[in-house]
Specification:
By secondary structure, the protein is an alpha/beta fold. It is 33% helix and 23% strand. Helix 3 links the parallel strand 6 and strand 7. The structure holds D-malate.
């Protein structure tokens, strides 16, 4: 799995970046720098190809998710994050995920379905993938997420469902709404930064 690692200053946050469909490990770098210019960054590239676009798991059309691929790729991603973290001597608990769209979706899936030690995430325009098989509490998890009121890809139901899934498992959820469609806006990044600065 391709990735980029940049060590920041010791007082900086540890940001783990997961791009959206068609992105790569450089896509969210500017946002990461805006969130914290001193951050250490681990940014991974999804291994699934869809018409030349990188993704973190397969789909069979818009929002028709391949749930077998989702499980396989979630394990691969966790393995990779664990291995780089060990190599760089960064505790998994220190990472704060910053995921957009497809990257936010696999991040939410990992938090809900795997007992990973990562506790915090900024999820930009995520949605529920409809998988909910676990019961372990997410009480130490703090999730900030953005929902757009007129997102052509993520329905209100799908984002509300994810919020409900996380809250039902006692995660601390901060959800903000935008009206930008599926794109990331500077306004939401500013709000995410405020939340992050309080961590
Ligand atoms: C995307 O285009 O990336 C979708 O919104 C989310 C996904 O496919 O996981």
């Amino acid at each position: 799995m391709e990735y980029l690692f940049e060590r920041g200053k010791s007082q900086g946050k540890k940001l783990l970046l997961l791009h959206g469909t068609g992105g790569d490990e450089t896509s969210l770098l500017e946002i990461a720098r805006y969130l914290d210019e001193d951050a250490t960054v681990l940014s991974l590239r999804g291994t699934v190809q869809e018409s030349g676009m990188n993704r973190f798991f397969k789909r069979n059309g818009l929002n028709q998710f391949d749930l077998v691929s989702l499980e396989v790729e979630s394990d691969r991603l966790i393995q990779m994050i664990t291995s780089v973290s060990e190599e760089q001597q960064i505790a998994l608990e220190e990472w704060i995920i910053v995921g957009y769209s497809n990257g936010a979706n696999i991040a939410a899936h990992m938090l809900l379905e795997r007992q990973i030690r990562i506790k915090q995430a900024i999820l930009l325009h995520p949605m529920s993938l409809g998988v909910d098989t676990q019961y372990f509490p997410l009480s130490e998890r703090k999730i900030w997420l953005s929902v757009s009121q007129n997102d052509p890809i993520v329905s209100k139901e799908a984002s509300n469902k994810l919020i409900e899934q996380l809250k039902n498992r006692q995660a601390e959820v901060t959800a903000i709404t935008t009206n930008s469609g599926h794109q990331i806006t500077i306004d939401e990044i500013e709000q995410a930064k405020k939340w992050l600065d309080e961590r």
